[in-house]
Amino acid sequence: xxxGYHYTESGLMNVWLLNGYTIRKTKYGAGVSIHDADGLHRAxxxxxxxxxxxxxxxxxxxxxxxxxSQRGLGELLGVTDQAVALWERKGRLPKTAxxxxxxxxxxxxxxxxxxxxxxxxxxxxxxxxxxxxxxETAKGGWKTHLAA
Length: 148
Description:
Blueprint: E1 5-6, E2 16-17, E3 21-26, E4 29-34, H1 37-49, H2 56-65, H3 70-77, H4 81-90, H5 95-110, H6 113-127, E5 132-138, E6 141-147
Antiparallel strand pairs: 1-2, 3-4, 5-6
Helix pairs in contact: 1-2, 1-5, 2-4, 3-4, 3-6
């Protein structure tokens, strides 16, 4: 089915939009405007979470929809960020990781508070990766804090 607009901007090469977009002429050529891109991405992620097996691009898409880095997803699944990068590049991930990622996305999408909170905490920790730890002595021992 190659009708409509081939939506490759999502990182998924198999998505075609039948409607919900506008093509406009610009001085640089044709430009495409997607109506409710966030809603489209949620619909795509929900569909991916319910398929039998994920491809590497689909793993990346779900990870990004949850706002996670490869490192954060790896920590959530108990693997290294290199393992996640390999899954995304090669498209072969263990069946358990595949199922768990889809389950986590479904619960995240439903607004499961503990899952959402845990993912947010991992994302915060991931962003603080480049901060310095400042240590100084004070009454009662060492005191530490993070600095950019």
